[in-house]
Structures are given as structure tokens and as C-alpha cells.
């Protein structure tokens, strides 16, 4: 089932998401719906707050990106970045902030502790695009948006567009949730 994407200015995007204590069949169904919703919106990452849920769950699927066509969707639960290395700038966008793109500086590689879709604990290292997408989605779990990381002059360039989105002036090819609907129970 395709779920509506929560848009900039909705309060759930600004809250620190709650950790999951385990997963059951309802979470498995949610994960499937998140993957379907992300693909429908032509995204490569989606965090639970982006569908209105305050839980530390995210999905990454780089398969639409050239060079990553064989990548499988990755489920990340309760992530915690243990270490970072190197920094680089790269253009980012966000399904919750349609039509805005800007360069964001992030670590180029990370060591991540998380639980997978079977709730098994993992510690893995990620670099390049995967590291960037994971950090972007983890930011969502912490109530941070990529526009919060912009330098002042870059933020000024997108401010009017952000105000338009907050006012409901949003045009997407995917369904969006009503703004300020609040967080749903997890």
C-alpha cells in the first residue's frame, strides 16, 4: 500500500523518533509499504517520520541509481553512528521537501550500529552514496532535515520555497499527508 509522505513543517519531522523494542508482522507490513511508497515517489531512502510515524526505522534502496542496480532494499532499525571518516559535499533532496536540492557536507564514510529487518544487531561500515543516504535518513529520526545543515546563504536561497511548502503549496507526483497532522502512535 502506498502511504502519503509527510511534508516539511509537519511536527513529526521535528521530533526525535522512538526506538523499536522488536518487530512483528505489523512492522513487516509497514516495511513493505515503506518500500513501495519510496519507490512510488522515486526516492532512495525513507524514514518512518516521513510517513507520520515516530519510530526509529528507515529504508534505503539504491537500485534506481546507476551503478547500484543490483542493490537490495536495506532495512535499518534503531541506528546509531559509531564513527565517521572524511567529509564531502553532495547535492541532496528529500521527499518531504519536494523540489528543493542543495549541497550538504557530510562524512564520507560511517560505522553504523543498527538492527536489520530480523531485529538482529549489526555493526557495518558504509561509504559513498550509501553513507550519505543513511545519514540523511538518520537525521530524520533525530528531527533534523537536510535544509537545517545548509550554510546561511544557501538556506536563504531556498527559504521562500520552504515557506511555500509550509503553506501547502506542494506539487508532487506522489501522495502527501496533510501538513501538521501530528505523529501517529507506533
Describe the structure.
The structure is a single chain. The chain is α+β, with helices and mostly antiparallel strands and 186 residues long. It has one domain (11-166): Peptide deformylase (Peptide Deformylase, Alpha-Beta Complex). Helix content is 24%, strand content 29%. It has helices at 25-40, 128-141, 152-166, and strands at 45-47, 57-60, 74-94, 97-115, 121-127. It has a 5-stranded antiparallel beta sheet. A hairpin with a 2-residue loop joins β3 and β4 (97-115). The protein is globular and about 45 Å long. It comes from Prosthecochloris aestuarii (strain DSM 271 / SK 413). Keywords: Hydrolase, Iron, Metal-binding, Protein biosynthesis. It catalyses: N-terminal N-formyl-L-methionyl-[peptide] + H2O = N-terminal L-methionyl-[peptide] + formate. Its cofactor is Fe(2+). Belongs to the polypeptide deformylase family.
Mean pLDDT level: 94
Number of helices: 3
Biggest pleated sheet:
5 strands, antiparallel
Structural class: alpha+beta
Number of strands: 5
What is the second-level CATH architecture? Alpha-Beta Complex
User: Helical amount among residues, as a percent range?
Assistant: 10-25%
Output the CATH class name: Alpha Beta
By CATH, the superfamily comes out as Peptide deformylase
Strand content: 25-35%
Spatially, the strands of the biggest sheet line up as: 1-2-3-4-5
Catalytic activity: N-terminal N-formyl-L-methionyl-[peptide] + H2O = N-terminal L-methionyl-[peptide] + formate
GO molecular function: metal ion binding; peptide deformylase activity
Protein name: Peptide deformylase
EC number: 3.5.1.88
